[in-house]
Design brief:
Elements lengths: L3 E7 L3 E7 L5 E2 L13 E2 L9 H12 L7 E5 L10 H11 L5 E5 L7 H7 L4 E4 L6 H8 L7 H14 L3 E8 L7 H14 L3 E6 L13 H11 L4 E3 L15 H11 L4 H8 L3 H13 L3 E6 L2 E6 L3
Parallel strand pairs: 2-5, 3-4, 5-6, 6-7, 7-8, 8-9, 9-10
Antiparallel strand pairs: 1-2, 11-12
Helix pairs in contact: 2-3, 8-10, 9-10
Bound molecules: iron/sulfur cluster (SF4).
Iron/sulfur cluster (SF4) binds next to loops.
């Protein structure tokens, strides 16, 4: 499978089938904490980066097994709203597979454009990121494409909140020394209270980042939660996954697909795929000898990471 991956156990969405609509590594930002890697094509241009027929045929094939998953999620290597046929894909899934809930992980960079907003309104849960309360912090942390400002991001999320049909869960990822000062948290908190999302999710650097930045401890995230006092705040924590039956011959391919998008510890891969850590280790060793994955240390813990071209 080239365009769909998983299902993976996501801390926010449970068991989620990923749909990847832009190649490595097309994004409108180049965040210091990105777990995919440094952006190689920073752009605000929408295009059909991958053929829609290919995406649909993979979805058809996979969904024909009627898998028990919590969400089909547009996410992956870069920013999914850069895909110019996203709206068609959303309509297709809503009409052909209405039994599945849809989710969108987005950096919110294009939501201020009315045509993009219109396309994503039928999505059940939209998860926009908002990491800064001030323009200078946004530039430093998210390193946007030229012409993109925090003002655009806020305008987009505001419009989404006014017109939404589903839920909106805003994520703020905190990075030590960059957006965790009392002053910055105060500003972010004011914005969150004004936007009033269904959930405000606090996250931090928990996987090897593209650039050498550090995360906060649980206690530090909790301090932020207490400082802001927004009622629907949650600190995203690791949870165990559900069991999925996966034919063994596809295991290596699935693991590669998973760790190319985000580095994972062996236990998490095993959880996501519903298999033993021994089986994962065996496949990982082979992938290592083929030069397709590597092991990296982050916070003293080993992670398996894809070697992307
Ligand atoms: S974290 Fe998301 S928005 Fe930021 S560079 Fe990575 S893919 Fe793009």
């Amino acid at each position: 499978m080239k365009y769909i991956f998983g299902p993976v156990f996501s801390r926010r969405l449970g068991l989620s089938l990923g749909v990847d609509l832009v190649p490595y590594k097309v994004c409108s930002m180049d965040c210091l904490y990105c777990e995919v890697g440094a952006t190689t094509e920073k752009t605000l241009k929408r295009a059909e980066y991958v053929p829609i027929e290919g995406v649909k045929s993979e979805l058809e094939e996979y969904l024909s097994f009627k898998p028990e998953i919590d969400f089909i999620t547009f996410s992956g290597y870069g920013e999914p709203t850069l895909y110019s046929r996203l709206g068609e894909l959303v309509s297709y899934l809503k009409s052909e597979h209405p039994e599945y809930q849809l989710a969108l992980l987005t950096n919110a960079s294009l939501l201020h454009r009315d045509n993009v907003l219109e396309e994503i309104l039928p999505i059940d849960v939209v998860l926009p990121s908002l990491d800064a309360g001030r323009e200078e912090t946004f530039k430093k942390l998210n390193r946007p494409a030229e012409g993109l400002s925090l003002k655009n991001i806020l305008e987009g999320i505001e419009k989404l909140m006014e017109r939404k049909k589903g839920k909106v869960w805003i994520e703020t990822l905190f990075v030590k020394g960059i957006n965790d000062s009392e002053e910055e948290v105060e500003k972010i908190g004011e914005i969150i209270k004004r936007l009033n999302p269904d959930r405000w999710q606090l996250n931090t650097v928990v996987r090897p980042p593209a650039f050498g930045v550090e995360g906060l401890s649980f206690e530090e995230l909790n301090r932020i939660k207490e400082q802001v006092e927004f009622p629907r705040t949650e600190i995203i924590a690791h949870k165990k996954g559900k069991e999925v039956n996966l034919p063994f011959k596809e295991l290596k391919e699935e693991i590669l697909s998973l760790v190319s998008r985000r580095p994972c510890p062996v236990e998490e891969i095993a959880d996501a795929l519903g298999i033993s850590t021994d089986e994962v280790m065996k496949a990982v060793e082979e992938l290592k000898s083929e030069g397709k994955v590597q092991e990296v240390l982050f916070g003293g813990e080993p992670y398996v990471k894809g070697i992307c071209g």
